[in-house]
UniProtKB/TrEMBL annotation:
The keyword Hydrolase applies. The chain crosses the membrane at residues 142-162, 214-233, 245-266, 308-331, 352-381, 401-420. Residues 187-366 form the Peptidase M50 domain. It comes from Thermococcus camini. Its main location: membrane. It is a multi-pass membrane protein. One of its GO terms (molecular function) is metallopeptidase activity. The lineage of its organism: Archaea, Methanobacteriati, Methanobacteriota, Thermococci, Thermococcales. Keywords: Hydrolase, Membrane, Metalloprotease, Protease, Transit peptide, Transmembrane, Transmembrane helix. One of its GO terms (biological process) is proteolysis. GO terms for cellular component: membrane. This is Metalloprotease. It is found in: Membrane.
């Protein structure tokens, strides 16, 4: 069997494995990420006494190969470099001068020749790593649509359940409002799907802009009060630059937030206030407030003082969108905020930050038990690390610094320390 050289798309770990599959999903022994085939060890056939398929062979057993002349010529157009060694199919050069500052162009033109590159700063030197480009498996065309339809169904059911509770409150207090549960349920489902879908579409557009391969959004159906656990896209190739990492991290939260704004305003206009004296002190669920909702309630949709506001399902959808923005912008691990933070921090410093954030979230569990779960998840994701961009040398543009600051403001506005609490 051919012995392939594999590299993890998440953490960059490389080793030789007795396989010729293009992608070994979740095969990285370091972080559990996908291992992509980037080349073959010289001497493809195994001897009878060689290790079994499942056995891993250290990288130092790989025989050096020559870099194609076309690739060397292309590199000379972009950099003044001196060779510093070869590890398997990874060619290491020290960069003396940069002739092309657009690393995305460098990566794009090298990929046309079948190679990828990484630009790193090591011990005061700028090193260029050149290695065979990995093959990316095509997406399943039908699975995203199956998940989409299932999530529409589960969010509609969740909206129907929320609508029944809302209508019963209208009847109990004799208040005007929309009493058709199907209309309310459909409005909730559309609102949630629009916020989550726009969030992931923002990521998808940013990925396409920077030439990063990413799947279509996968909505996650879940039978709960909200009907979903959110949506994700899977990035299948490395982030080229720190600017790209910031764009991908910021694009989703900003896009989703822009949809959550009108949804929240419309939902609050449909919500009903009831005097505190008429509301039983026990037996309900309280949704935690954030600065953005407080601003709306003060300047755009005012309610009488000393009243309890019963949220329309659409308002709950908007609230969920704000909470999703906050959770995604937590500056840790491989969350959106984590990618933004990693653009400014070294891998070691980012790992320390992730650990600190995880412990803080666990400590906040006295405010909401869900923070305990989130803290543990952050620590688990942090153990996988965040490899950052391929180019960690080129400076971050002023526009991206402004975007990162905008993300920080958005994080503060959407912060919800105690998302859900029960009364009584």
């Amino acid at each position: 069997m051919s012995r392939g050289i594999y590299e993890c798309v998440r953490c960059g770990h490389r080793e030789v494995i007795d396989s010729s599959e293009p992608v070994l999903e979740n095969g990285c022994p370091e972080c559990g990420g996908d291992m992509v085939l980037v080349g073959f060890e010289a001497g493809a056939e195994n001897a009878p006494n060689e290790p079994s398929v499942s056995q891993r062979i250290p990288l130092h057993t790989v025989h050096p190969a020559a870099l194609p002349p076309a690739v060397e010529a292309k590199l000379s157009e972009f950099y003044v470099i001196e060779p510093r060694g070869v590890e398997g199919n990874v060619f290491v050069f020290e960069v003396r001068d940069v002739l092309e500052g657009d690393f995305e162009r460098v990566l794009r033109e090298l990929e046309e020749l079948g190679y990828w590159a990484a630009l790193k700063r090591r011990g005061g030197r700028v090193l260029l790593y050149v290695f065979p480009a990995g093959e990316v498996r095509e997406d399943n065309r039908w699975l995203p649509w199956v998940f989409l339809i299932a999530t529409i169904f589960t969010t509609f059911l969740a909206g129907y359940w929320l609508s029944l509770s809302y209508i019963s409150l209208l009847d109990e207090y004799g208040l005007p409002g929309i009493r058709n549960p199907y209309v309310n349920a459909l409005a909730f489902s559309i609102s949630v799907m629009a916020i989550l879908g726009t969030h992931e579409l923002g990521h998808k557009i940013a990925a396409a802009y920077h030439g990063v391969r990413a799947t279509m959004p996968y909505f996650i159906p879940f039978p709960s009060m909200l009907g979903t656990m959110g949506a994700v896209i899977r990035v299948k190739s490395p982030l080229p630059t720190r600017n790209a990492a910031i764009d991908l991290g910021v694009s989703g939260p900003i896009a989703g937030f822009l949809v959550a704004i009108p949804v929240s305003i419309i939902g609050l206009k449909l919500s009903v206030p009831v005097p505190v004296s008429m509301v039983p002190p026990t037996g309900g669920i309280t949704f935690g407030e954030n600065l953005f909702f407080m601003f709306i309630e003060k300047y755009l949709v005012t309610f009488p003082e000393n009243s309890v506001v019963f949220l329309h399902p659409v308002a709950i959808a908007g609230w969920v969108g704000i909470l999703v923005t906050f959770l995604n912008l937590i500056p840790a691990a491989q969350l959106d905020g984590g990618h933004i933070a990693r653009a400014f921090l070294s891998e070691r410093t980012h790992r320390y930050l992730t650990t600190a954030v995880g412990l803080v979230l666990i400590g906040m569990s006295f405010l909401w038990v869900g923070w305990l779960i989130w803290g543990i998840l952050v620590l688990m994701m942090g153990a996988m690390g965040n490899p950052g961009a391929l180019d960690e040398v080129s400076p971050i543009s002023k526009k991206r610094i402004a975007l990162a600051l905008a993300a920080l403001v958005l994080f503060i506005l959407s912060a919800t320390p105690a998302p859900i609490s029960a009364t009584g």
